[in-house]
# Entry
Amino acid sequence: MVGAGLSGVGAAYRLQTERPGTSFVVLEAREDLGGTWDLFRYPGVRSDSDMYTLGYSFRPWSDSKSLADGAEILSYIRETAQEFGLDERIQYSSKVVAADFDTTTSRWTLTVEDPRTGDRRTLTCTFLYSCAGYYDYDQPHAPAFDGAEDFAGTVVHPQFWPETLDYAGKRVVVIGSGATAVTLVPSMLKGDSAAERVTMLQRTPTWISAVPGRDKKAEKLQAALPAGLAHAAIRVKNIAFSTAFYQFCQRRPQQARKLLTQATTKILGDPELVAEHFTPSYDPWDQRLCAVPSADLFRAIKNGRADVVTDRIERFTREGIELASGRVLEADVIVTATGLKLLAFGGIDPHVDGRRVELSEQFVWNGAMVTGVPNFAVCIGYTNASWTLRADLSHRLVCKVLGWMERRGHAAVVPKPDADLTPQPLLGLAAGYVQRSIGAFPRQGDRAPWRVRQEYVLDSITTLRTNLARTLIPVTPVAPRASEQLTPVDVSQ
# Structure
């Protein structure tokens, strides 16, 4: 397994529990576990899904705080790994830089590099499972701004937040309007290190919804029921609500727009402000909805310590940012919360018998395995609900596939796509970070089991009931032609 974040630890638990005795290792490129929650250290970093469903079903989240801080989530992952002995399965500073499957031996050969020293070693395995998500941890989306070298202040990106950054009493401009930006703005106004003022500069508005900081219904259930039963009831409640709201937005977009607009106007008390800065042109959930706990962003704007500007950047100046309208935003610190870059399978570039597999020509089966790549699976979470809900289904599906292969005597299998599948993008979101990179990913089809649905209830019913023999086929070894000599993968490129 590749990646020791929220998904990798969950996958390790499932494999250890459902297939006891299986030999496995978790390869982690960084020097600690946690993935996203170890990497991102900017002020206020937190979950944007409720922890009762983002947390593991086998280790209930017991705090009443629904949206948890990054440090709390990191501790939760670390404690889970320690409790079940999964931390002993992790090899740190182990980045997979090449992966080649040999159909004659039905084995993967992995080239693993220590990012600190550049030293490389080789590992082999029969099955490879990428749990590294689809974000590029090394390079964020960082557009070039004219005049950036002229700015006299400090420019930082949230993905590489410097621990020594001092913004106390300073003027801060946060470029962006996504989940990171709406988290940063109120967080940089708290405590002894609070900024003097924070401005959120956005090119276009984003749908933002205020949510309770604590789940009072969850607290009542926890007080009234045994821990396990309370956790199950809270998960069912939250899954039902998030699914219903998503479907409502998809089926009745105009009513959803009205509902969100009215809720924001009620908090801010300024219809013109809401119309200009918090009413996007796209419909709710065409892009991921941003959640702000206890309306902290709106409260910061209402009390006058934060503001939002909707305009385009002309250039950076010595004093700050010159906008297309001619206005200049003066700043001491500029935070470029301009988004993430997608990277397929944590950068793993799979080869089969020495030949590179063109991922953009492949299909994803049951949201987990990929055509053209034997004995390989990926963990892809939901975009409209907690990532872990889908991830856990994929972990259990991989365990089922391994058991089925063992019973059938198959050394290697690969999904076989239907001939008449209509290719569609793997992720259906219209967000810029998705549209910029999705062409490099495998595709989904127009029907099951090739459709990557955003419907947990349906997936929970059907995924583990999939007829494996209908769509998974044994792999036939590929012998090189007389005129063609296969060469090893050049891992230096």
